[in-house]
Amino acid sequence: MVWVLALAAPSFVAAPLHAVLPPPPAAASFRSVPTPLLRAKPPPPPSGPPLPLLLQPEASLAMGLCLLLALVGNRLLTEDLLNSQSRADLLAAVAPVLLTLKGLTDLEIQEREAEAVELDGEEHSWMAGELSAQAARELAWGAETLLATVRCRSVAVWWDGRTVLLRGLLPLSTRQNPDDAVVPGPLVSKCMEKTSGAPEYLPSLQLLPGRVEFSYLPQATQSVLVLPMTTQGAARGVFVLGSDTQRAFKQDEVAWARAVSSRVGSVLSPI
């Protein structure tokens, strides 16, 4: 019993410390270098001889479940149950429960990442020619920053009733007619009507009938993030980000992209 309890002691592995995304750069800086991640030091190696089979989480789960089944079977097959036997069964159940908990603690259960798909289109960069130098510089900074720091492959910007920027992977029809590429549909219009400035996230675009609204993005685009540029409670434009992966934008990436679009909108609003 002692060696079983010793094996059941839970082990803890230091988790990597992910750096918090930085705030939007200052107005004078237009660098889009991603912040490196801070990683914790690996745990020291065990001092004693390794026991690879017994220390594996699968082995702990198997032993714990087998012992629990043995206790349940012994309980069911015993005709005359004594008080002393009941107390012994309770004490004996501690070891398999601890073994099972150890296996569950050591077992790494992670969400399966969706695979990236190949998008049709070519790399393209276009910007409306009648923009001021300040607006063009800010739009270029925002697009390059988002392409470099979040998992998007296409960026489209619509401002004051017209398309002002297209960058990344774009289909042929969009490249041939960039001025009228972005036409706000129900989803984009709904996002712009929000007074809170909250984004509209479509993690699985191909499952939605509204995907036809984003025809200016590659046909196989897997997820879309629509970021309104709100000034004084009203949205005058949106950033539309397209990705080649389902569920591509995590919570911290959405927050960072929202900060970038808000800054670009604040610079464009007085222009």
UniProtKB/TrEMBL annotation:
Is-annotated flag, keyword Nucleus?
Answer: no
Q: Which GO terms describe its cellular component?
A: chloroplast
Q: Which Gene3D superfamilies match?
A: 3.30.450.40
* Any GO BP annotation: cytochrome b6f complex assembly
**Matches recorded under InterPro entries:** CCB2/CCB4, CCB4, GAF-like_dom_sf
Q: Does the keyword Iron apply?
A: no
Signal peptide from the UniProt entry: 1-19
PANTHER family (UniProt xref): PROTEIN COFACTOR ASSEMBLY OF COMPLEX C SUBUNIT B CCB4, CHLOROPLASTIC, PTHR34943
Q: Tell me which UniProt keywords the record has, alphabetically.
A: Signal
Question: One Pfam match, by short name?
Answer: CCB2_CCB4
Name recorded for this polypeptide: GAF domain-containing protein
